[in-house]
Design goal:
The protein is about 30% helix and about 15% strand. The protein is an alpha+beta fold and about 130 residues long. The strands form 3 sheets. A two-stranded antiparallel ribbon has the order 1-2. A two-stranded antiparallel sheet has the order 3-4. Strands 5-6 form a two-stranded antiparallel ribbon. The radius of gyration is 16 Å and the shape is globular.
Length: about 130
């Protein structure tokens, strides 16, 4: 039984990496673990991160993905597939139109599906504007 979906090719695979793409799964990547004090400091600096695990946010994400039928809102590239009644991201992410750090919310109206390249471009422009 497949354990993961490859974020590159979008096909299911078992084991640590996709045999087609040779991509290592997230769970087996060798990231250094944060210490408890580092994790506590991260939660204090970014209190909105706890919202991502709530049911309301997960539902709003699905609505945002459904709104564009799994396609990037900026360029139209397919970046999510529907499996049963749930949308699975493969090459995209749900973007906050107004960031949580600037008072935006996690409602479906503030979320939009973007492919990785469009998300990076918009996020870089936002960060550059914040530095000014």
């Amino acid at each position: 039984m497949p354990s993961s979906m490859c974020p590159i090719c979008g096909k299911p695979y078992s084991g640590a990496s996709c045999p087609r793409c040779k991509r290592v799964s997230r769970s087996s990547r060798s990231h250094s673990k944060r210490s408890q004090s580092q994790e506590k400091a991260r939660k204090q600096a970014n209190p909105w991160r706890s919202e991502y695990s709530r049911k309301e946010y997960k539902t709003a994400r699905q609505i945002a993905i459904q709104r564009t039928s799994g396609r990037c809102a900026a360029c139209g590239k397919s970046c999510a597939t529907k499996r049963g009644s749930v949308w699975i991201l493969n090459g995209g992410g749900v973007h906050h139109i107004r960031p949580l750090s600037q008072g935006g919310g996690n409602g479906a109206a503030n979320l939009v599906l973007l492919c990785v390249s469009c998300h990076n471009r918009i996020d870089a422009a936002r960060r550059a504007a914040d530095r000014r």
